[in-house]
Design brief:
The chain is about 50% helix and about 10% strand. By secondary structure, it is of the alpha/beta class. The chain has 2 domains: about 5-140, Spore Coat Polysaccharide Biosynthesis Protein SpsA, Chain A, CATH 3.90.550.10; about 150-365, Four Helix Bundle (Hemerythrin (Met), subunit A).
Length: about 375
């Protein structure tokens, strides 16, 4: 069953325009419905005296317009629901009306596939805890619930358990400001480049700390974009290449600083090798992401893994998993620790050896394959 219509009930006018996570409640409901595949929504109230952000491709009808006929989804405006949950409900194949309820027995999502008369008799189901939240006015508790949507499953250990706590705290304070995700990308890149410049002038610990700050604040752009429904291909490109520009500057800056301190060219050569290898790896990963985006119909490009190993041998899948783990930003904590102990030359040597190896493995994982998943022979 293809469900593209919805009825949104907004019984409380004050709640409708309350702001949560940088958007009015009704705006957030519009974006949620559109992301789930809804193209027409009938709102059971009069329009507010305010300009609303309405997602592209969504037709909004207000009270007084002709009502929507089945099939449609009725959605309670007093609740927020996880996007995967909403998609799962819309995809359910049912020939009878179904009501998904909260723990108080109030209907949150009601699927009406056919004209069932008046009153409608629903089959009742309970929405699992954590997949919905009841709104109050002001709906402050909902913001903490929403921040779950801002995290990424690919975060490394330190990013997940430490960096995200800091970046989310910053993001919450930026949601209702003029700062956009792309602005935040440029801010974090500028901080990272400043750290690389300090390393080049021998200020090892301050430089390393600025690199750490860049890495931590780098999460804010994506968090802002996801919470405010402002993701874009351009934002993904800026974020990806901004990170990699900072990485290259880090290696060159570190090499230059150690070269100046030691009076020899070798550290600078090592830094350049690491920077060139890291940039080449980034280029391969970016091209791979573009191919995956094209295969999905043009969405993206957003970086998602360094290699496509579907159909590959188990050993290669494990190797790809290791490479994905190494691509995380947790290395910055090693950088800070070694800077504190005056051992950044260890980090430089590891980078000069590890970056080319990473590039070689990436090339191996992305080599052409036959339909059976075996590597194509080379001539």
């Amino acid at each position: 069953m293809s469900m593209t219509q919805a009825v949104l009930w907004m019984p409380h006018s004050a709640l409708m325009m309350a702001r949560v996570g940088g958007l009015a409640v009704i705006e957030r409901q519009f974006f949620l419905l559109r992301r789930a595949g809804i193209t027409k929504v009938w709102v059971g109230t009069n329009p507010p005296n305010a300009t609303l952000r309405i997602p592209e491709g969504l037709e909004v009808l207000w009270a007084g317009n002709s009502p929507i006929r089945p099939p449609y989804l009725a959605f309670s405006g007093d609740h927020f629901v996880r996007l995967p949950t909403l998609k799962r409900v819309l995809a359910e194949d049912s020939n009878v009306p179904v009501s998904w309820q909260d723990d108080a027995g109030k209907g949150v999502l009601q699927l009406v596939p056919v004209d069932a008369g008046d009153p409608i008799h629903f089959e009742k189901k309970r929405l699992p805890d954590g997949e919905w939240v009841m709104l109050t006015h002001p709906p402050l508790p909902a913001l903490s619930w929403l921040t779950h949507e801002a995290t990424k499953s690919t975060d490394g250990f330190m990013a997940k358990h430490f960096d995200r706590k800091i970046s989310l705290a910053v993001t919450k304070r930026l949601l209702d400001t003029f700062v956009t995700p792309n602005m935040m990308t440029f801010i974090s890149v500028a901080i990272g480049l400043a750290g690389a410049a300090l390393l080049a002038f021998g200020q090892e610990l301050p430089g390393a700390l600025l690199i750490w700050l860049h890495s931590t604040l780098d999460g804010c752009d994506g968090e802002l974009a996801r919470l405010k429904f402002m993701e874009s291909p351009l934002g993904g490109i800026l974020d990806f290449w901004g990170d990699n520009v900072v990485h290259a500057a880090l290696f060159v800056g570190l090499g230059l600083g150690l070269s100046r301190a030691q009076g020899m060219a070798l550290p600078l050569v090592l830094g350049v090798v690491a920077a060139l290898s890291a940039t080449a790896s980034a280029g391969l990963a970016f091209a791979h992401s573009r191919r995956k985006a094209a295969a999905r119909g043009g969405a993206g490009p957003f970086f998602s893994g360094v290699a496509d190993v579907s159909g590959a041998a188990t050993a290669e899948k494990r190797l790809a998993a290791v490479e994905d783990a190494l691509a995380q930003r947790d290395f910055v904590y090693l950088l800070v620790a070694l800077a504190a102990f005056g051992r950044l030359e260890w980090f430089l040597w590891a980078s000069a050896v590890g970056s080319p190896l990473f590039l070689v493995v990436l090339l191996w994982l992305q080599r052409p394959r036959t339909a059976t998943g075996q590597a194509s022979p080379t001539i």
